[in-house]
Amino acid sequence: MPIKKEELHKMSDAEIAEESARLRSRLYELRQQAVTEKLENNREPGNIRKDIARLLTEKRSRELTKA
């Protein structure tokens, strides 16, 4: 399930970093499943990549507003 914009704005910087790390490890696991042909949902890796991009975009926008 994708991260919603409202949820993203409520997250702290530490929570964003933690969620990003969690999603990256999940993406790695999905890549391993794809290699062994055990991946059930082919769209899940793309959705996770989009969530990571949303998190990084929010992180960057916060950095720019502080500067």
Based on the model shown, name its key terms:
3 helices, 67 residues, mainly alpha
In short:
This protein has 67 residues and is mainly α. 78% of the residues lie in helices and 0% in strands.
Rounded radius of gyration (Å): 14 Å
Number of domains: 1
N to C succession of SSEs: HHH
Q: Helix count?
A: 3
Mean pLDDT: 93
Please outline the major beta sheet: none
Helix content class: over 70%
Sheet-strand content, in percent, reads under 5%
Spatial gap, N to C terminus: 32 Å
Shape: elongated
Strand tally, please? 0
Low-confidence stretches: none
What class would the helix/strand composition place it in? Answer: mainly alpha
How would you sum up this structure, described in words?
It is a single chain. This protein is an all-alpha fold. The protein has one domain. The protein contains three helices and no strands. Helix 2 packs antiparallel against helix 3. The longest helix is centred in the middle third of the chain and has 23 residues. The protein is elongated. The N and C termini lie far apart (32 Å). The relative contact order is 0.18. The mean pLDDT is 93.
Secondary structure layout plus pairing:
Elements: H1 5-10, H2 13-35, H3 44-66
Helix pairs in contact: 2-3
